[in-house]
Write a structure and sequence with these properties.
This protein has seven helices and seven strands. With 204 residues, it is of the alpha+beta class. The strands form two sheets. Strands 3-4-2-1-7 form a five-stranded antiparallel β-sheet. A hairpin with a 5-residue loop joins strand 5 and strand 6. It is globular, with a radius of gyration of 16 Å. The termini are far apart.
Length: 204
């Protein structure tokens, strides 16, 4: 479980965004699409496949803020900031919308991605559970996503540094960045900042 010594700040978000590199992961994305029964951008199973890749193949390490761009993080290991850059690069290459989310409490903080899925909570959760069942992996009881008044779908929590499954809030709960509200629903604890990624391939 990662412990972040100091919270990522706006300057760190800028550094991460400047170092995104979707082009480097073309073969990885092709493999992910080969694993699904039907092609299509926004497929939950592709997002799960890429999340599983980062969880299983990238050594998660603890150091402060941004250190390695995505290609290097894939080979050398990553903290929560660098794994966010890596996973967002994979998502962008697969034509998903994604955003970097910061949650901070005083001197400590955590960064993780959220991926936009154009579907209802029930449909998303069903596809996620079916994916992990296929690989005989346990999907936790809790599932976490947030809505946006301007969009019909859901922003699904995707935290490869702290949780083994797409949509799983367990890591955020254990890190005490998420807890139950008065109505029993999950809510963030601390200050939340979100930055949707706008990637221009001409900038790479």
């Amino acid at each position: 479980m990662p412990t972040v010594r100091n919270p990522p700040e706006r300057e760190v978000v800028v550094s991460v965004a400047e170092n995104l590199n979707p082009q480097a992961f073309g073969p990885v994305i092709d493999t992910a699409f080969d694993h699904v029964d039907e092609p299509g951008v926004g497929n939950v199973r592709v997002a799960c496949d890429l999340h599983r890749l980062v969880c299983q193949e990238v050594e998660h390490r603890d150091y402060a803020n941004f250190r390695y761009p995505p290609r290097e993080a894939f080979q050398r290991g990553a903290n929560c900031v660098d794994s966010t850059a890596l996973y967002c690069s994979l998502l962008i290459r697969a034509d998903f919308r994604c955003r970097m989310t910061l949650v901070t409490q005083g001197e400590r903080g955590h960064m993780f991605p959220e991926v936009y899925i154009d579907a209802t909570d029930n449909a998303i959760q069903h596809d996620i559970e079916a994916y992990y069942d296929r690989y005989r992996r346990y999907f936790p009881h809790r599932y976490a996503a947030t809505s946006d008044d301007n969009l019909p779908g859901r922003w699904v929590i995707a935290d490869p540094a702290a949780s083994n499954c797409l949509g799983d809030p367990t890591g955020l709960i254990q890190l005490r960045y998420m807890g139950e509200g008065d109505a029993g629903n999950l809510q963030f604890v601390g200050k939340i900042e979100r930055y949707e990624i706008r990637f221009n391939p001409d900038d790479s």
